[in-house]
Design brief:
heterotrimer, A alpha+beta (575), B alpha/beta (410), C mainly alpha (368), A: alpha+beta, five-stranded antiparallel beta sheet, 12 strands, elongated, C: mainly alpha, Amino acid/polyamine transporter I, 75% helix
């Protein structure tokens, strides 16, 4: 995987391959020179010529399979496919078998070269996904994608069968985003399965999946998913435009696409969200966003995105609102802490110890007495060590990884304190910061904050608390000027939107949030129906012990007493 | 045009970006790690006579070129915390216990800043006053006047306004060397003492910020706690040192602090007094829990007159043999007796202050605020007020209600 | 030029609030007490009233010319060449104001927090931050102010609330003051602290509904003025008028005297100062943006990005001119008063000329 092969050509060429064959000899997207040198793109009638041609182009591959046979006993035909990517059982039973035996009702005599193609297409085949293809370029593309072709001598079209079968792993809980209360399904690498996971959750006709091919050599199938009528047409068009402008030889992961279509490449903050969970993707699509999936990557990316999505998890919504709000607030505090805690520590120790309570300040001085470095340097050293440790534990195999991380943190930390390199409080601060940074659910946003910690610590080392404030102002100003597909990054806090604010710090109950996010300007912005408040009225205490298993009293009609508290609503009706 | 402009802009940007870090390369100027500062926790100021003046170092003066002022010399003792000897967390015993966690240094100089300069010359690390909590002034120095210290204490931004200034009986330096067993850091014991006194209701809030405010106000004189060192290294609040302007002129008894707080309207009560039960020889102890005071300044015959109404909520803290506290009649009598005692005591206290011409109660402020016409015409300055204050008339009304008797049934 | 109009009324209000609340916050009670003793709150109210008339005039003008800033409609009303003079004066004034504000800020920082850091560094850091932020367009300008306002207001209110524990209502009486000096002078000095509101002229053309600008200006003045009033009341109540005359920055001392119950953090003034840095930043940002924007309008430039860095050295030099802090405050007082002539007088002139012109036009058209 060398980056040197990537050419970012200044010409913006569209690599969109639609279902119709639009290729001509001038289109230089296929790097095969032989094809370009062909006199024509049209398949010839002679079977042997065709086989010869294909063998020239593709024959060097060990998995290229070509077999000649007699169809219905009287036609010469050949079947060609790449054996590594097809389902051989389907070929055998679905394709070869019907071609060997004529269906009972047909008269073999009547079949000639001219009408055998139509006969096969319409009457004979068991296999459902078939079509005819006569452009050589398309035939080659299709072969490389796992389609099988049958060529008949004397017919200038081939029949294309879709029998692709590639090994894929089973659906399991996503590794990077684990929840307690929620589905355990995550995307896998196969695009078909992923789209299936999405479609299963959005069984509506408005759910659209559009396909594009990006990447000259990898020709990765990219799917754009959205809900028509909820996502604005301008947004969908913008997404497609940006995707169309990508000109690279291979898209190996959806992260490549993210880097091409984001608004600001220099910003440490991600402007597109990536997730491994289908339920989260569906949630975003329902709000009016667009999701992009690529074959070969278990992640989907969602655009546009705002900052407060990065500390929301799916669990906030599937659990009750008090729980969700509490956990979210804890996460926000952890996030803020992970950014400024070490720098606050540095500024308190080095610049403004009068802020600490006196007893504590004097004691801390004691802890630092043996350390040779100033607080800034000490913090930076331990921070860097922590980052290295983190990277190392990601790469370790599972069996060794768990123990080593604990060993690393405890032992090395303790040893550093005893050696006098660090003071115990520094180790505590850094450890808490690191743990806090794990609380941010979105990996890329947490990374941004992790990175930004360092400049702020350095600023704190120069100016103390004043430096921290300047650094934080600088970061906020940057975030406030970011836009993701036009949506201001800090919506709905700024520009303010009351409806949106209900989901920022706390997670308001569903009946308080009847509209979709206003920042996405969806045509259809009502989420809840009219029954917002009435969910309360309708409940009846069916199994309340007063009513069940109890003897009903006789109704006393003459008295003017009001109805009993626990009376079932139907009791009143029956009177 | 397009290409050259583009590169000129980028060139400029690069230059700017390269220059900015140059600003910071000269160093982090204020960075001073906490263990590299000499944290001064408390200072004490004593008067010295010129005999010790012989070894005055020429740090802030130089003979005839920068002559030093010729007022009285003071001795400053500073209690500096030694980093590393005051441990975090529980005492692990062994090495840490024997070593003295503090270092007391004394220097001599003419003014406060002078002495601090001398002190810095003798201490390796930079002196840090951010945690300064107590300033102990000996009685002699207080009687000379504290104004000259206020200037430095105000100008130095490190010094917090919530520090306490106290007057000590005898030498102030001893207070710096004391090591009471209750606290790890001795000066903190001192500051905890006065701060807790406020919470216990035995002293009004009087940190240095309030002290300064009262000193400056036109209608008030100020006061400070008066501390005395006792045998077991413990310290006693022996009363209230009252000031006329910035000189101390005398002190009150501790119980009079309670009466003082009654007049000024401090809500929290804390003093207990013996009250004789009428018609018997028995004395019970009544403790004030809560006070409510209103002071109304009026003019009677064109002269200032005050009506002071005090209301006490009290508890009987200790009964005595021979009386039955269940009897409501007896309790009422005790209330009356307590009331009488308060009225007598406050009368005496106010008269005493009037003789000394020290308006620590702040009556002048009431006048200035609520009778501005009279104040603006007749008085206007602090000196004039003192004269009027001498002849002030006042009425004191007091009521006491005994609300609780503790958990004993009789 | 097509102006993207997005600023809502709430955003305009927050811009006003954060611009007004700035570096003057610290020394405000001192100015108030110097002239009026215990009548400081009243003098503050008086100052607010004067400032409000200035702001009202500007808003009125802005609504009459909803798509133009004061530079442009000054040209309309007074004619291109005649308006050049006041426009240049305005730009110069705001450049000087930016410099003086940053200098005052730097002075507070190096006196109270960072004692060894050179003044130039603190000033330059703040100016660079402001200059970098002005490279964005007006919408981001509004977002920035909108975002920081809660951070400014909340701590100030909390400190005021906590400090009232030590308050003594006697210091606030009598309400008019025992020895009232000149109320007028005091009011003018305080009104000078509200001069930042002049930048509203730049904001109105970018508002979504310029007709609603009055609402924004009223609310902005109420909140900012209310906060200033509260601070004056709190400081006078806690310290008493005489003591304040001894304090250079009474608000800072107020924060110092306050402590969170339970003594978790003991010296709240550092926290307060950090928050105040945000307030100063927004004020500086506004005046810097106004300078740059006005220059670009006068010169007819499309984009003001390059100007941000060109102005920087000029403003920095201006900031370094006063010799010491006392000199600085003298200069600020003088400039404040001069500024009032500009920010209240010039709009008054424009309004009157505008009204007269309209009348002449009307009568002229009737005749014709």
């Amino acid at each position: 995987m060398s980056w040197s092969t990537i050419k970012r050509s200044p010409k913006r060429r569209s690599t969109k391959l639609s279902k119709q064959p639009a290729a001509t000899a001038n289109d230089n997207m296929i790097p095969h020179k032989l094809v370009e040198e062909l006199p024509t793109d049209q398949l010839g009638r002679n079977l042997d010529t065709t086989i010869e041609l294909l063998k020239n182009l593709l024959g060097k591959n060990a998995d290229f399979f070509c077999r000649k046979f007699q169809m219905y006993g009287k036609f010469n035909a050949a079947i060609i496919y790449f054996s590594s990517i097809v389902d051989k059982n389907a070929i055998n039973s679905g394709i070869m078998k019907p071609l060997m035996y004529v269906p009972v009702q047909t008269d073999l005599e009547k079949l000639t070269v001219t009408n055998v193609l139509d006969f096969i297409l319409n009457e004979a085949m068991f296999h459902t996904e078939i079509k005819k293809e006569d452009s050589i370029e398309n035939i080659i593309n299709a072969l490389l994608r796992g389609e099988t072709f049958i060529f008949i001598d004397g017919v200038n079209s081939g029949i294309q069968f879709a029998v692709k079968n590639i090994e894929k792993r089973s659906i399991s809980q996503p590794e990077t985003e684990q929840v307690i209360l929620g589905p355990r399904e995550g995307f896998i690498e196969s695009l078909q399965t992923n789209i299936a996971l999405l479609r299963n959750r959005l069984k509506t006709a408005d759910f659209r999946v559009e396909i594009m091919e990006i990447g000259r050599i990898s020709k990765s199938t990219t799917a754009i998913c959205y809900l028509e009528g909820i996502a604005t047409d301008d947004l969908v068009k913008e997404v497609k435009d940006r995707l169309g402008k990508i000109d690279i030889d291979a898209i190996l992961d959806v992260g490549y696409i993210e880097q091409f279509i984001e608004d600001n490449h220099m910003s440490p903050f991600p402007q597109i969200q990536s997730t491994e969970r289908p339920d989260k993707t569906v949630g975003s699509i329902l709000e009016g966003r667009v999701a992009i999936l690529v074959d070969g990557s278990p992640f989907s990316i969602i655009a546009p995105v705002v900052f407060n999505q990065f500390y929301q998890t799916f669990e906030d919504y599937s659990s009750r609102f008090l729980m969700g709000s509490f956990v979210r607030i804890a996460r926000m505090i952890a996030l803020v802490f992970s950014l400024i805690f070490p720098s606050l520590y540095v500024s308190f120790i080095s610049f403004n110890p009068e802020l600490l309570p006196t007893e504590f300040a004097v004691a801390v001085a004691g802890g630092r007495a043996g350390v040779p470095f100033p607080a800034v340097v000490e913090v930076l050293i331990i921070e860097v060590a922590m980052e290295i440790l983190r990277e190392a534990t990601v790469r370790l195999p599972k069996q060794v990884g768990g123990a080593l991380s604990i060993v690393g943190v405890l032992v090395i930390g303790q040893a550093a304190v005893e050696a006098g390199i660090a003071s115990p409080i520094t180790v505590v601060v850094i450890a808490m910061t690191t743990i806090g940074s794990f609380a941010t659910p979105a990996y890329d946003a947490a990374f941004a904050l992790r990175m930004l910690r360092f400049p702020i610590v350095i600023m704190a080392g120069f100016f103390g608390l004043y430096g921290v404030v300047i650094g934080v102002i600088f970061i906020f100003n940057h975030m406030l000027s970011l836009k993701s597909f036009g949506v201001p990054y800090m919506s709905p806090v700024t520009p303010g939107n009351f409806q949106g604010l209900k989901d920022v710090i706390i997670r308001a109950p569903f009946w308080w949030m009847p509209k979709r996010p206003q920042m996405l300007h969806s045509q259809n912005s009502d989420r809840l129906g009219k029954t917002k408040g009435e969910s309360k009225k309708g409940t009846s205490n069916t199994l309340d012990p007063v009513m069940v298993g109890n003897e009903k009293w006789e109704e006393d009609k003459s008295s003017g007493i009001s109805t009993r508290d626990n009376s079932h609503s139907s009791n009143n009706d029956s009177n | 045009m397009g290409v050259s402009k583009h590169s000129w802009k980028t060139c400029l940007k690069i230059i700017l970006i390269a220059l900015v870090p140059g600003l910071f390369l000269t160093g982090c100027w204020d960075s001073d790690d906490i263990e590299q500062r000499a944290t001064v926790l408390g200072i004490s100021i004593d008067k010295v006579d010129d005999a010790d003046g012989a070894d005055l170092a020429q740090i802030t003066g130089l003979g005839n070129q920068f002559p030093k002022p010729k007022e009285g010399l003071i001795r400053l003792s500073a209690q500096i915390a030694v980093p590393g000897r005051i441990p975090l967390g529980p005492q692990t015993g062994g090495a840490g216990v024997d070593q003295n966690p503090l270092w007391v240094i004394s220097v001599v100089g003419y003014t406060l800043d002078d002495t601090i300069a001398v002190l810095q010359q003798e201490v390796a690390d930079r002196l840090f006053f951010g945690h300064l909590r107590t300033i102990v002034i000996s009685e002699e120095v207080a009687k000379d006047g504290v104004k000259r210290f206020n200037d430095y204490l105000r100008r130095n931004p490190e010094i917090r306004r919530t520090a306490w200034m106290v007057v000590s009986k005898g030498e102030a330096k001893k207070f710096m060397e004391v090591a009471p067993k209750l606290e790890r850091v001795p000066t903190l014991y001192l500051s905890a003492m006065v701060e807790n006194a406020v919470r216990l209701g035995t002293f009004p809030e009087d940190f240095i910020g309030l002290f300064w405010t009262r000193l400056q106000s036109k209608g008030q004189d100020t006061f400070l706690p008066y501390l005395e060192l006792k045998k077991e290294d413990n310290i006693q609040i022996s009363g209230l040192a009252y000031f006329k302007d910035d000189r101390m002129i005398g002190r009150t008894e501790p119980v009079e602090i309670g009466l003082f707080m009654a007049v000024t309207g401090e809500k929290r009560g804390g003093y207990e007094v013996f009250v004789k039960v009428p018609d018997t020889d028995v004395k019970v102890i009544v403790r004030a829990e809560h006070r409510r005071t209103s002071i109304i300044p009026t003019l009677r015959n064109g002269k200032p007159h005050f009506v002071i109404k005090i209301h006490y909520e009290s508890t009987i803290a200790e009964g005595a043999v021979g009386i039955d506290l269940n009897n409501a009649e007896i309790v009422r009598k005790i209330e009356e007796e307590a009331t009488k005692g308060v009225i007598e005591g406050t009368n005496r206290l106010i008269k005493k202050m009037q003789d000394e011409q020290s308006d620590i109660f702040g009556f002048g402020e009431y006048f200035r605020a609520k009778q501005p016409a009279y104040w603006n015409k007749k008085i206007q300055t602090k000196e004039k007020w003192r004269e009027v204050y001498k002849d002030l008339t006042f009425d004191i009304h007091c009521t006491t209600k005994i609300r609780r008797v503790g958990t004993k049934a009789k | 030029m097509e102006y993207p109009r997005e600023i809502t009324v709430i955003q305009a209000t927050t811009i006003l609030i954060s611009t007004i609340i700035g570096v003057g916050l610290l020394a405000l009670p001192l100015f108030a007490v110097r002239t009026a003793d215990t009548g400081a709150p009243l003098v503050t109210l008086f100052g607010i009233a004067i400032a409000s008339t200035g702001l009202g005039l500007i808003t009125f003008l802005g609504i009459r010319h909803p798509r133009k800033s004061i530079i442009l409609y000054g040209e309309d009303i007074l004619g291109k060449w005649l308006s050049r003079v006041p426009n240049i004066v305005i730009i110069l004034f705001f450049a000087i104001l930016t410099g003086l504000t940053s200098r005052e800020f730097g002075a507070v920082v190096i006196t109270a927090i960072l004692k060894q850091t050179p003044l130039e560094v603190t000033v330059i850091v703040m100016l660079i931050l402001a200059a970098l932020s002005t490279r964005n367009d007006m919408n981001v300008f509004a977002y920035i102010h909108n975002f920081y306002v809660p951070f400014i207001l909340a701590p100030a209110l909390i400190i005021v609330a906590l400090s009232l524990k030590n308050a003594n209502s006697l210091y606030l009486l009598p309400v008019v003051g025992n020895e009232p000096g000149s109320y007028l002078v005091g009011g003018l000095t305080i009104a000078a602290l509200f001069q930042g509101s002049f930048i509203f002229t730049m904001i109105i053309p970018f508002m979504r509904h310029p007709r609603k600008a009055f609402k924004a200006s009223i609310w902005g003045m109420v909140i900012a003025g209310g906060l200033y009033l509260l601070i004056v009341i709190a400081t006078v109540a806690v310290f008493g008028p005489v003591e304040i005359t001894n304090l250079l920055w009474p608000t800072l001392e107020l924060a110092r005297t306050t402590s969170i119950p339970g003594n978790i953090l003991q010296r709240l003034d550092i926290v307060f100062l950090s928050v105040w840095v945000i307030a100063v930043f927004t004020t500086l940002f506004s005046s810097y943006m106004f300078t740059v924007h006005s220059i670009s309008q006068m010169a007819g430039l499309r984009d003001h990005k390059m100007l941000s860095f060109f102005i920087l050295p000029i403003v920095f030099v201006i900031a370094m001119i006063p010799q010491n802090i006392l000199h600085l405050y003298d200069v600020i007082e003088i400039f404040g008063r001069l500024g009032l002539i500009l920010t209240v007088g010039y709009p008054l002139l424009l309004v009157s000329v505008d009204l007269v012109k309209k009348k002449v036009k009307k009568s002229g058209s009737i005749k014709a």
